[in-house]
């Protein structure tokens, strides 16, 4: 029954080394939110401005998050957010781009 008294040494949800990583976790959350937003809005042709801009910012925050990431769990989430951001960005660019329709 000694195993029931052991403390949780795994750390937080994203900290597999047992240390807190608030900046990496914040970048992960921002990248995932931007990626989901970009991906969902890319399905609507008239939302190409939102899709392309959120995708671009999601790609940049995800790339910086990958650069400073120290845990595998954070990298996994960042790759998911980066992928969704990239798909949303490219579809937004195909539907009109970053400034499409603003200067007509």
From TrEMBL:
<protein>
    <recommendedName>
        <fullName>Integral membrane protein</fullName>
    </recommendedName>
</protein>
<feature type="transmembrane region" description="Helical">
    <location>
        <begin position="26"/>
        <end position="44"/>
    </location>
</feature>
<keyword id="KW-1133">Transmembrane helix</keyword>
<keyword id="KW-0472">Membrane</keyword>
<feature type="transmembrane region" description="Helical">
    <location>
        <begin position="50"/>
        <end position="70"/>
    </location>
</feature>
<keyword id="KW-0812">Transmembrane</keyword>
<feature type="transmembrane region" description="Helical">
    <location>
        <begin position="77"/>
        <end position="103"/>
    </location>
</feature>
